[in-house]
Write a structure and sequence with these properties.
By secondary structure, this protein is mainly alpha-helical. The chain has one domain (92-343). The chain is built from 13 helices and 4 strands. This is Transmembrane protein. The chain crosses the membrane at residues 100-118, 138-160, 172-191, 203-221, 241-266, 292-311, 323-342. Keywords: Membrane, Transmembrane, Transmembrane helix. It comes from Manihot esculenta (Cassava).
Length: 350
């Protein structure tokens, strides 16, 4: 047949654009040819364009009797807003930063052990030359854990008489212990905890009753790359109790820290431990002469760093309406950790 068929464009459905409607500009069947010359396309996406083909495509009537459609959709070619190169660069930077932080933490662990335990240069005696007086002081502080014995004695309960120690040393000891106590739910809800293959129960127990030596390696190990084949471990009984009871842990630990600060300057007022000025003077002399007190200051400094770090990476565990508050308070020592524990989403498995 001499007459050629004029094909027009019809946009096919794709992932990024679709036609709203088509309206014929002329009657669709006005001759023996079963085609219309033009269709008007209304589209939603500016990235999809229909081109009209005015050049005859086919001269064969059998083929020409069918409407041929040509679609040119630019949505598939659309330039991505974030290139793969940018994503790869960001991942590479994060990986390098993680490795640098790991090196810093492992070096810090070595310095902590050498300086506080082994070398004789820090204030007080190293572990291998610890004095009997230091051992007795440590035992006495442990017996006055969270001021339980002194409070029992004050109400007439004398199952064991509480050792009478300087309130500043008691306050410093219990302040660090109270803060450490609250780290348990934070560790058990850390989303990177599975990268640490050891027992979190043992880790926290050593941290609680010995020193902060054991938390530094955990902070380094959790920076390892995630193992794709690893499966989330279930909480231990201790982990379940600490996680479900996080608000109670937060209230007890926060109250212990508050009482410790007040006890240091107002406790045992009848014990001839001097005024507030005298207690400040004792604090500085205590830090400069006792290795245990000196180590507590190291622990406090590390907690000031680790608390906002861990909370900031676990804000997804917080109730949505309180995320901004916790994110702001996490930089305040003790207070930020109390806020995290009070605002955990306990109705979900963490």
């Amino acid at each position: 047949m001499a007459n050629s068929v004029m094909a027009t464009t019809q946009a096919l459905l794709c992932n990024n654009c679709y036609p709203n409607s088509f309206s014929p500009a002329t009657k669709p069947y006005n001759s023996k040819l079963s085609v219309s010359r033009h269709y008007r396309l209304y589209k939603n996406d500016e990235n999809c364009k229909a081109w009209s083909i005015t050049k005859p495509l086919f001269s064969d009537q059998k083929i020409g009797s069918k409407l041929m459609n040509l679609v040119v959709c630019y949505a598939a070619r659309r330039k991505p807003t974030i290139s793969n190169a940018t994503i790869s660069s960001d991942e590479g930077n994060d990986y390098k930063l993680g490795k640098v932080l790991q090196i810093i933490l492992w070096v810090l662990e070595g310095v902590y052990i050498l300086w506080l335990f082994l070398l004789p240069y820090a204030p007080g005696d190293p572990v291998w030359a610890i004095s009997k007086e230091t051992v007795n002081s440590l035992i006495g502080l442990s017996l006055n854990f969270f001021f339980i014995l002194p409070l029992m004695n004050s109400v007439g309960i004398h199952l064991i008489d509480a050792p009478v120690l300087h309130p500043v040393s008691e306050g410093l000891f219990n302040f660090v212990i109270g803060w450490t106590f609250m780290f348990a739910p934070l560790l058990f809800t850390d989303y990177k905890r599975n990268r640490y293959q050891g027992s979190l129960d043992v880790l926290w127990g050593l941290q609680m009753f010995l020193t902060n030596t054991f938390l530094i390696p955990y902070m380094a190990i959790r920076l390892n790359e995630a193992d794709a084949e690893s499966t989330p471990r279930k909480h231990s009984q201790l982990g379940t109790v600490m996680t479900n009871g996080a608000p109670i842990v937060g209230l007890i630990g926060g109250f212990a820290c508050l009482v410790s600060a007040l006890w240091a300057f107002y406790g045992r007022m009848d014990g001839n431990f001097g005024s507030m000025a005298d207690r400040w003077e004792f604090l500085f002399s205590y830090l400069g002469s006792e290795r245990l007190a000196y180590a507590f200051i190291w622990d406090i400094c590390l907690y000031i760093i680790f608390q906002p770090w861990l909370i900031g990476e676990n804000l997804q565990n917080i109730q949505e309406s309180k995320v901004d508050v916790v994110n702001f308070l996490r930089f305040i020592p003790v207070v930020g950790l109390v806020a995290y524990l009070l605002c955990l989403k306990l109705d979900e498995e963490l």
